[in-house]
Write a structure and sequence with these properties.
Mean pLDDT: 88
Structural class: alpha+beta
Shape: rod-shaped
Helix content: 40-55%
Number of domains: 2
Distance between the termini: 101 Å
Low-confidence stretches: 1-16
CATH class of the largest domain: Alpha Beta
Number of helices: 11
């Protein structure tokens, strides 16, 4: 196979558009050479021709199988066999499924019936070699290239349309998937809120035990790893627990659901919350995957004795308010889950009428202000104290929201971590 490209003249621009690929198929070398010379100066729409020679139908078939960009094939009929060219036409349209290429038959034989060939074979033009002049050949090439260009444009438009249709279909599928996910997340959020104490339950429980309770819960993502609960131990005592699982989103939320079932059957003794943490830790150590852990604090309250007991597991402290004074309860203690038998410690302190206890998760501490401070703990406590002074100017029902808004005034939502704040006040 030989491949000839008409060279540009010396005054042609250096950067030329791609040439039009045309396949010449003929076993007569002289015919191929004459065709190349005749078309050497031809251009269509500013593009020259890339003339590709094939000396047999089989050679042409291999070329066409490798190249789908060829616009025209000018094809002799009689080559290896009497019908080699016609057999190649069938292979192009059938085996190669190339319906875009323009097929022009030319032959030196006179016995072929033009009407029969056009009827039986998917060809686009037919000429006797003796009838083709240079001018006639250029007209044939121009008409074929114009037709091929229109078909090519239509094919690209159809492909774009199909791509757009598929993209739209995919978007519709994704929208339905997203809708289902949103619905599932909405249900999961409702389920998660359902395992948290309800406002009316807290109010009723508080009234029966001489405690008022307000709580705030804000997940950083659709679902949270924070969990809190308030329940009665006996007629004189309450217990509040706040736990934060590592990670975010669905995984952390699943752990909080799991913890809820563990907490419901966890024994609680008023003066020994550390024993409850030990019990919870044994269960969590057995079921939590490696690398997953939790922090938390359990506080028991007895109003008859005006006292609280607490035990913590790596918790960020808690604030006991008495008048204008703030006492920071120790949150030190081993983490929940990683170790089989850690040692939790029970602490105790007076909890007098009008005292308040505020428990909070990490999001209240790990703010922009604290993270940028050289002394984050000191910065947090100062900010908390300032926010608390503002909150005390509000009515009791508005104090918790005021405290949170003042503490997080420089934060961007969603928060970096889940936020839970519980405010208990002795009546």
């Amino acid at each position: 196979m030989e491949k000839l490209i008409a060279l540009p003249s010396s005054d042609s621009p250096l950067s030329l558009p791609a040439a039009w690929p045309i396949l010449l198929v003929d076993d007569d070398h002289e015919t191929l050479m004459v065709t190349q010379i005749a078309l050497s100066d031809y251009q269509f729409r500013g593009r020259e021709l890339e003339l590709i020679n094939a000396h047999s139908a089989e050679s042409a078939r291999r070329i066409l199988a490798a190249r789908r960009d060829i616009a025209i094939v000018i094809l002799d009929v009689v080559m290896e066999t009497q019908n080699a060219g016609l057999t190649l036409v069938e292979a192009i349209r059938g085996e190669l499924q190339n319906h875009q290429i323009r097929i022009i038959l030319r032959t030196g034989e006179s016995h072929f019936d033009l009407r029969e060939l056009i009827h039986r074979y998917d060809i686009n033009d037919f000429h006797h070699k003796t009838d083709i002049t240079v001018e006639r050949l250029e007209i044939i090439i121009t008409a074929a290239l114009r037709a091929w260009s229109e078909i090519e444009l239509a094919a690209k438009a159809a492909a774009l349309h199909e791509s757009a249709r598929l993209a739209e279909a995919e978007m519709q599928i994704l929208a339905k998937v997203q809708e289902r996910l949103d619905d599932d997340l909405s249900r999961a959020r409702q389920m998660q809120l359902g395992i948290m104490p309800r406002e009316e339950e807290c109010k009723a429980l508080g009234l029966s035990h001489g405690i008022s309770c307000q709580a705030y819960f804000e997940p950083a993502h659709e679902l949270a790893g924070d969990y809190w609960s308030l329940r009665a131990i006996d007629d004189e005592s309450l217990v509040v627990i706040l736990v934060d699982f590592s990670g975010h989103g669905v995984t952390a939320a699943l752990n909080s659901f799991l913890f809820h079932s563990l907490w419901l059957r966890c024994p609680v003794t008023v003066d020994d919350p550390a024993a409850s943490l030990n019990h919870l830790n044994r269960d969590l150590h057995e079921i939590l995957p490696s690398g997953i852990l939790a922090t938390g604090m359990i506080v028991t309250i007895n109003r008859t004795q005006n006292r609280i007991w607490w035990s913590a597991s790596g918790w960020p402290s808690a604030a006991l308010l008495r008048g204008e004074q703030i006492s920071w309860l120790c949150g030190d203690g081993p983490l929940l889950g990683p170790m089989a038998s850690p040692e939790f410690v029970t602490h105790s302190q007076e909890f007098l009428p009008a005292d308040s206890l505020i428990l909070y998760s990490d999001a209240l501490i790990e703010t922009q202000d604290s993270l940028q401070s050289d002394s984050p703990e000191q910065q947090f406590r100062q900010r908390f104290s300032d926010s608390l002074r503002q909150a005390r100017l509000e009515s009791r029902s508005q104090r918790l929201s005021c405290l949170i808004n003042a503490s997080l005034k420089n934060e961007i939502r969603p928060l970096r971590d889940d936020l839970t704040v519980v405010w208990l006040q002795a009546e």
